[in-house]
Each structure stands twice: as C-alpha cells, then as structure tokens.
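Data availability (excerpt). The following record was deposited with the supplementary files.
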Amino acid sequence: MARPSGTGRRRSELLPVLARAFAELGFRRATTAELARRCDVQETILYRLWPGKREMFVAAIGHVFAESEAAWAELLERAATAKRGAARAILAYEASHHGEHGLYRLVFAGLSESDDPAIRAALRRMYGRFHRFVAGQVALHRGAGDREDGVLEAAWAIVGLGTVANLSRELGLLSARARAQLIERVGALLLGGAS
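Predicted structure:
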C-alpha cells in the first residue's frame, strides 16, 4: 500500500511564511534562496513543492483569501451562536483587524506583475472569491438574492473599501482609528438593509 504524500501538508505549513516574505519583498526582490532561508528549508525542498518562484507567488496570492476566510468562518460561527448579524460582525472585525498582517502588500506586488498570465489569473480568482463571499453576506444581511437590489455592486464597493483602507495604511493617509471608522461607517452604508 502506498504511503500518503505529505506534499499538501508541507505546502500548507510553508505557505504563510512565503506569503509574508512576498508581502515584504515583493515578487522581483524575493529570491528562492531568501524564501528558502525564511522557510528554514533548502531551496530544493521549495522546488519539490512548487515548480518555480512564480508558482510559489501564485499560491501565496491564494493564501491571502484563505487567511481571511478562516478568520471569517470563526466569526460566522460566533455570530450564529450570539444571534448577531454576521455581516456586521465581519465589518466590526475588519474595522479592527483589516490589513494588520500586511498581506495586502503581496496583492499590490501581484498587481505590478499582472502582465504575467498566471499571476493575473490568481489575482482574478482571489478578488472573485472575496467578491462572492461579500456578496453572499450582503444578500443574507439584506434578505435578498445575491443578484438582487444592487448586491453585486455593493459587494464590489466593499471589496474596494478594503483596498482603500490598505492604501491609506500603506501611505499613512489615515490613522488606524480613521481607517476603522471608514470601514465600519461606509461598510454599514453599503450593507444597507436590516441590521
């Protein structure tokens, strides 16, 4: 009987480290030697797990959504238990925590590499996943179908709100308090419907 592969498990362990490294260094400045050093493995290990640096970067882009999704799943479970509005709970969480891990910098680095078809496709998937999740929460909050009452537009606006918050953090345009208020107040307006 064949032994199960540990490749998926090992990728899962190293992906957060790679994502942080790419967020800090960007795509071009991150060498595979530096990525391996930060992962505390030899470069050959990284190449056994991914064909190249681009594939590592693409996987790291996917990790950006996965990290948010994990935090939101926990919030949704707590919101259901507390009978609190899930969308409002997520907004409150994001007002306090949005961008704190700096992974938005990885997305910004990806945008500068969007002429690469694989990176562009990864960014499209990531933004699509964010949009679908947010649209679902807006629809639930409003008691509407996900294609009714401007839900899709509101979802894109909320995704854009996150980007604006990240830009303001990166460029020092708004204080942490002002960013939190921006997310909570404008997010609440975009949610609309019952609370």
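Summary of structural features: The radius of gyration is 18 Å.
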